[in-house]
Here is the input.
Amino acid sequence: MSFNRLNYDTQAYKQSIEQSANVGNYNLEKPKISCNQCYPYPPSVRLQKQGVSIDKTKHLIDIDSELLGLCKKNSKDIKKNYVPCCPNAVCTSGEVCGQGVVGECKTGPRKNLKRGQRYQDDNLKHWKDCFIPAEDTRISNPSCNLRGTGWNRWEWLCLDPQERVEIPFDYNIANRLIVKDNHRPCIPKPIDPTPLLPVGGKLPCEKIKNTCGVYTNPPSVQWRNKNEIKNY
Here is the structure.
């Protein structure tokens, strides 16, 4: 096999390798490293690993381990099950230790909580709002508003676009009714045939002449007696 194609030239092959490798080396700016977490507030962002409020009295890894159940012993013995450490408070809520939305707290240092608050809200740390918001152009600038926007490109058109704005013929009319209303009957006038007729007057009478009668004899079947035969 001979390597005489253009792709196998020394400089062409070297340039092809550089083009394929420089894609990974190209960047606009050095990525910034920030250890400060933030809360992406746009509703189009789905929170996955960060952004929500955290408990500032505990380490994140401890909370993560408790959520995964790594620090809890798996057992069906009721005496070995996990017993949460509850604060000194009695709150009416659907979760253990007054977590979640609180209805009312009867005892404890925060017994004057309002409805909708949580007992451990003072331990939460809220992050600052960040993230570049995304703009939905179909909502902020819908295409229906662009019909009145003029874009003057300073280009002369070959044809006048307003020349054919109006339809140059009758359109969307009741043609059948118009024909009936404008109909005028065409009654023909016959030609007088009097000049072609003969001249009127009394017609001359023809003379009557006597003629011999037709010689006929009664047939034999009509002979009633022998005397009638003698007549012929």
Notes: The first strand starts at residue 38 and ends at 40. The chain has a mean pLDDT of 75.
